[in-house]
TrEMBL record, chain A:
InterPro entries: DsrEFH-like (IPR027396), Sulphur_relay_DsrE/F-like (IPR003787), Sulphur_relay_TusC/DsrF (IPR017462). Belongs to the DsrF/TusC family. It comes from Marinobacter zhanjiangensis. Signal peptide: none annotated. It holds the Pfam family DsrE. This is tRNA 2-thiouridine synthesizing protein C. It comes from the Bacteria. PANTHER family: PROTEIN TUSC.
UniProtKB/TrEMBL annotation, chain B:
SUPFAM superfamilies: DsrEFH-like (SSF75169). InterPro entries: DsrEFH-like, Sulphur_relay_TusB/DsrH. It comes from the Bacteria. NCBIfam families: sulf_tusB_dsrH. It holds the Pfam family DsrH. This is tRNA 2-thiouridine synthesizing protein B. It comes from Marinobacter zhanjiangensis. PANTHER family: PROTEIN TUSB.
UniProtKB/TrEMBL annotation, chain C:
The keyword Heme does not apply. Keywords: Cytoplasm, Transferase. Its main location: cytoplasm. PANTHER family: PROTEIN YCHN, SULFURTRANSFERASE TUSD. InterPro entries: DsrEFH-like, Sulphur_relay_DsrE/F-like, Sulphur_relay_TusD/DsrE. It comes from the Bacteria. It is found in: Cytoplasm. The keyword Transferase applies. It comes from Marinobacter zhanjiangensis. Belongs to the DsrE/TusD family. This is Sulfurtransferase TusD. Signal peptide: none annotated.
């Protein structure tokens, strides 16, 4: 088991603030130099769809915050492979590693946090 | 560390049709335990829902929902003190 | 937490992310927190995040025949000297302000109830690094 904390986002990028506040947790850990990874599971994979334009609903484009996450030290970004397929998210942006979120996957992280 | 070193207590509060319910079961490894709280205890009323071997339920939530005395399946019910004993035993807690 | 105190039981941080009167989270967390204290545990801190910050509003006014979770939590925290923090980003967005923030943003009033402070997510990062157990109580059940 690594010392890395996993933050899970399983809510869509718009229509709900939980994903944004979960991402803030990941950014905060990174800001304090704590190892952190992100998993987009279920409907959360819609965060990774290219071409988002939040301004159409007077909101920030959250996928840009996600782009910043790597810069701020969120080294690992994972995405639920079945959900990527189901929601037709191709060529995720930023590039995320497709995984099956099962016991073996979660077992690699010191803590798992989802809002 | 205890002898439960890498094992996890999964604390599930979502109703059985919530996507987190299935996601939680998928995340369980051998040696892990499941604690059903709040609306997750409704799973005790539905025998079709597969539950892991080591499953506990919060007694107060069962009682509130009329599931304490008459329920179609038996799992160990814990009061809140019992819940603290459980969370003490497992070094890793995941809330769903 | 101290080097000299030899404790048989782990110390806890409680994180509440579900709002009162919307979710059961603050109620379950309250019963669990009281059970921890009754069984000789140390509760290092309570952290409110996301919708959970609504618990710290002094303006919550449930009908008199319903539990006032804000008052009950406040009593428990103060009686046991447990530090309780509402995340500043979650709080400001949802209209939960202390005097200092109300002044800074020129708002008409402050509504943070006693027993709670407002601070950043760094408090949560600190909790994760130092508490033996961090337990989350979510909404959306």
């Amino acid at each position: 088991m690594s010392a890395t904390q996993l933050i899970v986002i399983d809510t869509p990028p718009y229509g709900d603030w939980r994903g944004r506040e979960a991402l803030d947790m990941a950014l905060s850990l990174a800001a304090f130099d704590r190892p952190v990874a992100l998993l987009f599971r279920g409907e959360g994979v819609n965060w990774l769809r290219p071409g988002q334009e939040g301004s159409a609903i007077s909101q920030k484009t959250v996928s840009r915050n996600l782009g910043a996450a790597r810069m701020f030290g969120v080294a690992e970004v994972y995405a639920d492979s079945l959900a990527l397929e189901r929601f037709a998210v191709n060529g995720p942006d930023p590039e995320a590693e497709a995984v099956v979120p099962n016991a073996a996957f979660y077992g690699d992280f010191s803590q798992v946090v989802q809002l | 560390m205890t002898d439960h070193d890498a094992t996890t207590l999964h604390i599930l509060n979502k109703h059985p049709d919530h996507t987190r319910f299935r996601a939680c079961l998928d995340a369980m490894a051998p040696g892990d335990a499941l604690l059903l709280i709040e609306n997750a205890v409704l799973a005790l009323a539905d025998v079709a829902i597969p539950l892991p071997e080591v499953t506990y339920a919060l007694q107060a939530d069962c009682e509130a929902r009329g599931l304490s005395a008459h329920r179609p399946r038996e799992v160990e019910q814990l009061d809140y003190i019992g819940m603290t004993h459980l969370t003490d035993r497992f070094p890793r807690l995941i809330s769903w | 937490m101290s080097e000299t105190a030899v404790s048989a039981v782990p110390g806890y941080t409680i994180v509440i992310t579900g709002a009162p009167y919307v979710s059961q989270a603050p109620a379950t967390a309250f019963a669990f927190c009281r059970a921890l204290l009754d069984s000789g545990h140390v509760v290092d801190r309570v952290f409110l995040y996301g919708d959970g910050v609504a618990l710290a509003s002094a303006l919550n006014t449930p009908p008199s025949d319903e539990t006032n979770w804000t008052d009950r939590w406040q009593e428990l925290l103060v009686a046991n000297g447990i530090p309780a923090i509402a995340c500043i980003a979650s709080a400001l967005r949802r209209g939960l302000l202390n005097e200092q923030e109300a002044h800074r943003y020129e708002r008409v009033a402050a509504n943070l109830t006693g027993g709670f402070t407002i601070a950043g997510l760094g408090e949560w990062v600190e909790a994760v690094a130092t508490s033996d157990r961090v337990i989350y109580f979510h909404g959306g059940a």
